[in-house]
């Protein structure tokens, strides 16, 4: 079974050397997030992830969760409950939450680092506390004062956990079709009735209570998404003073049988007149839920990154140890019958591709989280507004690209292992299965692509892209005389300008043909992701040369940046050509002829 060692040094490099996070945080009034504090958090999170969570990863996969059909109670895999107790004892559930509700007030960017390590160590376990953060944010922004007082402190402390109840058997992305209803009660609460599916951590034995945020429709709701309201509906009833009472009339009807994340309880939840309270204004539930959804989308992107890191670590260790055939230039280990397979060019291609996408993806994700922090804490209103626009633009890129790249990373890991990659004892096949879900939940890759090109680009006249492109152009100008990045800047500048031209071309075609946006969306998403990583690899090369890191570390960053520009960035050529081909090749065939 593979072992996990948290990439603390690379996380330090990302935060300290590339992003200059301490300066950013200080400018936002987050002075407590000093270099020493950041490093202490990284070290302790690394210890907890590697020593407590990673050993449970295979156990959770093999054992899964168990549903008692008579009671609707779910028991998690051996060790999961004890690990969660340690997690809340260490204060991890409140790391980034407001001190007003018992949190530590650390930046979300530092929370992202914690999330990566926890998800790398044990993705299934990480899902139990994950949605609590989104629940806290939704209630903080839209909840009534008594709801904040009653629900936020136990959620932040980790004694309660949160869920997000959107999807129904007949209604996935099109939430306007939901049938769950909310009938008003005499005491001001509501009776929630309906069935929700795919509910992550909908039922489990880790916390005292589970707080479900449920989308439902009031009796006077207008049709479609404009008629959706949001309700906080706990497993055990909670009164307006925060006291927990009797069991609510909701339960887990069944556990989904999944190809991966077996240790996570993915539930069908049945609400049978369960007591809930309206969150926010009637018929405005999507506004509140989007706070939770956007938090989860970035979080799932980090989960993809985490699986890529885990696959890379396993494949690299195996490639160094596995002796098979001779190196192309001749024997490297003359006293051995064969050389390590890492000497083979194609093995290096897979390892370097994974390394480039993972380390570059880490910077991309961290950048998005710094924008979240800026949007929440910056003193300047314009800085907050720009950060909100930029993180909105980056969110579908982070979510979709980092999760899709995790599929490539885990596939490469299996290929490096050869036949052993198919065998459970090495762990690689579990990473491949677990990574698959990250491309699906919180919106499939296609949904993210449509969001990026539609709402985040077309509807805003490219506001987010303009901000990001301006940041790239500023970096190019600032480093015009920097020999450390001279080889990258002309390519980066050309790709950034092409990005803008392709965007204009697609939007112009869409003005006369509404199918053009959907036809271009997938390629536009990945073109955007690869150019974004080109920027971050140029910045990584510059930061590495200016840092106090060892020479071997600096050289590895430079060589990986060169590999990325030479071997990965050219993928944009295909995506550009596909976009420019327009919608006709996709839409010409009559739908009824697909089976011919």
Automatic annotation (TrEMBL):
Among InterPro entries, the record links this protein to: Acyl-CoA_dh-like_C_dom, Acyl-CoA_Oxase/DH_mid-dom, Acyl-CoA_Oxase/DH_mid-dom_sf, AcylCo_DH-like_C, AcylCo_DH/oxidase_C, AcylCoA_DH/ox_N, AcylCoA_DH/ox_N_sf, AcylCoA_DH/oxidase_NM_dom_sf
Cofactor entry: FAD
This entry's Gene Ontology molecular function terms read: flavin adenine dinucleotide binding; oxidoreductase activity, acting on the CH-CH group of donors
List, for all copies, the residue spans of the domain called Acyl-CoA oxidase/dehydrogenase middle: 164-272
Q: Does the keyword Flavoprotein apply?
A: yes
Pfam families, A to Z:
Acyl-CoA_dh_1, Acyl-CoA_dh_C, Acyl-CoA_dh_M, Acyl-CoA_dh_N
Q: What is its EC number?
A: 1.3.99.41
Nucleotidyltransferase as a keyword of this entry, yes or no, is no
Show the PANTHER family listed in the entry. ACYL-COA DEHYDROGENASE, BROAD-SPECIFICITY LINEAR ACYL-COA DEHYDROGENASE FADE5
The protein's name is 3-methylmercaptopropionyl-CoA dehydrogenase
């Amino acid at each position: 079974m593979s072992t996990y060692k948290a990439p603390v040094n690379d996380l330090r490099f990302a935060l300290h050397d590339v992003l200059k996070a301490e300066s950013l945080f200080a400018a936002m009034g987050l002075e407590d997030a000093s270099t020493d504090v950041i490093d202490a958090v990284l070290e302790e999170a690394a210890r907890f992830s590697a020593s407590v969570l990673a050993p449970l990863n295979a156990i959770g996969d093999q054992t899964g969760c168990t549903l008692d059909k008579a009671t609707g109670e779910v028991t998690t895999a051996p060790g999961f409950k004890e690990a969660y107790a340690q997690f809340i004892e260490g204060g991890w559930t409140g790391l980034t939450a407001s001190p007003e509700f018992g949190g530590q007030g650390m930046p979300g960017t530092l929370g992202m680092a914690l999330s990566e390590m926890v998800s790398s160590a044990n993705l299934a376990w990480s899902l139990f506390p994950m949605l609590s953060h989104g629940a806290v944010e939704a209630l903080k922004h839209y909840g009534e004062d008594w709801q904040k007082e009653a629900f936020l402190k136990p959620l932040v402390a980790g004694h309660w956990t949160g869920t997000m109840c959107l999807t129904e058997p007949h209604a996935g992305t099109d939430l306007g079709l939901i049938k769950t209803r909310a009938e008003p009660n005499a005491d001001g609460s509501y009776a929630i009735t309906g069935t929700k599916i795919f509910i992550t951590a909908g039922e489990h034995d880790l916390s005292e209570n589970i707080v479900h945020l449920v989308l439902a429709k009031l009796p006077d709701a207008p049709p479609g998404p404009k008629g959706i309201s949001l309700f906080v509906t706990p497993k055990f009833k909670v009164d307006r003073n925060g006291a927990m009472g009797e069991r609510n009339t909701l339960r887990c009807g069944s556990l989904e049988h999944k190809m991966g994340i077996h240790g996570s309880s993915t539930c069908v939840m049945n609400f049978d007149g369960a007591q809930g309270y309206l969150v926010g204004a009637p018929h405005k539930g999507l506004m509140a839920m989007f706070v939770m959804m956007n938090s989860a989308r970035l979080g799932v992107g980090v989960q993809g990154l985490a699986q890529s890191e885990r696959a890379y670590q396993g494949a690299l260790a195996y490639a160094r140890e596995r002796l098979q055939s001779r190196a192309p230039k001749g024997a490297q280990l003359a006293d051995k019958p064969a050389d390590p397979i890492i000497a083979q060019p194609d093995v290096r291609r897979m390892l370097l591709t994974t390394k480039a996408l993972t380390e570059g993806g880490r910077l991309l994700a961290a950048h998005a989280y710094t924008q979240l922090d800026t949007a929440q804490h910056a003193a300047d209103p314009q800085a907050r507004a720009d950060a909100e626009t930029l993180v909105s633009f980056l969110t579908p890129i982070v979510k979709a690209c980092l999760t899709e790249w995790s599929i490539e990373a885990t596939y490469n890991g299996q290929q490096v292992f050869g036949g052993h990659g198919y065998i459970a004892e090495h762990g690689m096949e579990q990473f491949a299965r677990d990574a698959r879900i990250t491309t699906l939940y919180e919106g499939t890759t296609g949904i993210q692509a449509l969001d990026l090109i539609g709402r985040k680009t077309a509807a805003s006249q490219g506001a987010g892209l303009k901000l990001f492109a301006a940041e790239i152009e500023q970096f190019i100008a600032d480093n015009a005389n920097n020999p450390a990045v001279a080889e990258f800047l002309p390519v980066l500048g050309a790709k950034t300008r092409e990005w803008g031209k392709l965007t204009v071309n697609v939007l112009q075609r869409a003005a006369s043909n509404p199918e053009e946006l959907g036809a271009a969306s997938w390629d536009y998403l990945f073109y955007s992701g690869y150019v974004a990583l080109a920027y971050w690899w140029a910045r990584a090369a510059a930061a590495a040369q200016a840092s106090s890191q060892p020479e071997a570390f600096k050289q590895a960053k430079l060589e990986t940046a060169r590999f990325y520009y030479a071997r990965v960035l050219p993928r944009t050529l295909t995506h550009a050509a596909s976009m420019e081909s327009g919608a006709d090749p996709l839409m010409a065939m009559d739908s009824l002829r697909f089976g011919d």
